[in-house]
Amino acid sequence: MQTLAGKKILLGIGGGIAAYKCADLTRRLIERGAEVQVVMTRAAKEFITPLTMQAVSGKPVSDSLLDPAAEASMGHIELAKWADLILLAPATADLIARIASGMGNDLLTTLVLASDAPIAVSPAMNQQMYRNQATQENIATLQKRGMHIWGPASGEQACGDIGPGRMLEPMQLVEECEQFWADKPLKGLSVLITAGPTRESIDPVRYISNHSSGKMGFALAQAAVQLGASTNLVAGPVSLDTPVGVNRVDVASALEMHNTVMQYAPSHDIFISCAAVADYRPESIAEQKIKKKDSNEHMTISMVKNPDIVASVANMTDARPYTVGFAAETQDVAHYARSKLTNKNLDMICANDVSIEGQGFNSNNNAVTLYWKEGEQSLTLASKQKIAQQILMCIAERISS
Ligand code: C5P
Predict the structure, then answer these.
(1) Is the pLDDT of residue 234 over 80?
(2) Which of the 8 DSSP states describes residue 382?
(3) Measured from the CB, is residue 277 less than 6 Å from ligand 1?
(4) Model confidence at 194, in pLDDT bands (50, 70, 90)?
């Protein structure tokens, strides 16, 4: 599909090993109808040749600010005005630092300064360089200036390290471009999402919790931003990176989550309760670590019920957001989901059958059925990112209908 028909993308390639992926990236963009003009830094040419990039883009590659022939055909200011989007991929720590400090010491940085086109930055570097405070501050600066930060992914790196700093794969960058120009049905709306488990303390060192990974809630937060919403994420204890553009508040217990949500909910249009909230908490938290006693073969912890967060929001009388819950069931999914929809006074419920392997808790995939008063929609097994997008699209349709 020509999803990028007529879009003019200036692909700025920095000097990192991921530059070799730019040939494939260019082909994929062109396949979808985009026009791609490649600009390379001096270092980028050490990783992939201008000839390769010229062959795949079908245009001469620009790489020098001081080349009279290039300036005569399409000058740098003209090039800066030509672009609908400047995509910097791979954006090395050095390229990011030069842009953050407003330098124009080569063609690519000069174009960034001279263009009013939106700019997307796809960081790619060693994980330690990425984590370095200087790089983090530079990326935050670019974000503050309204640049889009696409990635990086985490994983194995060319240098053998493992961690964040891998450039997104070409197809992921293509999808980011498609998303960038896609309709933004949640533009102007605010979304509040809970994710992950809660931790219910027993004493200073012990707690009761569950296996929720938080992946579905984080995918929802990422998709909400991509669809144009301003997004707040209230997260239980999980080890996941915050999606770019999402404002995250960390909490531990159900009571903390409840307080935070009740404080935020009235200023939001949509609330999605994806967290696996503990139904009960120990009645009291021991001040000191509870000691094992040789004489005690059993111990009993008295538990009290936690507030139902999603029901509390759904029953707000003022400024009530459109309220969506989740239901993890192991049998008779439709029946239990529909009764939760009614009992909790929800607008929609996303139900999944967690007895099926490969979906739900801790998995990267999910399949859910959405129920609302007058209808339902089944979303077949797909990545949690895809499912998240579909859930939010369905919410957007319901809200506008
Ligand atoms: O009743 P059940 O726990 O199955 O309902 C699941 C839904 O309720 C989820 O959306 C979950 O986030 C929410 N929930 C809540 N507060 C609780 C328990 C569940 O918000 N204490």
Answers:
(1) yes
(2) E
(3) yes
(4) very high
Residue 8, marked binder: no
Look at residues 62, 68, 137, 140 and name the one whose alpha carbon lies nearest to residue 106.
62
Q: What residue's CA is closest to ligand 1, atom 21?
A: 308
Q: Which of 198, 272, 273, 331 to probe ligand 1 with, by most ligand atoms within 8 A of CB?
A: 273
- For atom 13 of ligand 1, the residue with the nearest CA is 310
Per-residue pLDDT reduced to its tens digit, 309-368: 999 999 999 999 999 999 988 899 999 999 999 999 999 999 998 888 766 666 788 899
Per DSSP, the three-state class of 19 is: helix
Q: Name the pTM for this structure.
A: 0.75
Q: Is-contact 65 105, C-beta < 8 A?
A: no
Q: Number of C-alpha atoms within 13 angstroms, CB side, residue 398?
A: 23
What are the structural domains, with CATH classification, of the chain?
Answer: 8-181 (3.40.50.1950), 190-400 (3.40.50.10300)
Exactly one of 159, 274, 350, 394 is catalytic; which is it?
Answer: 159
274 in active site: no
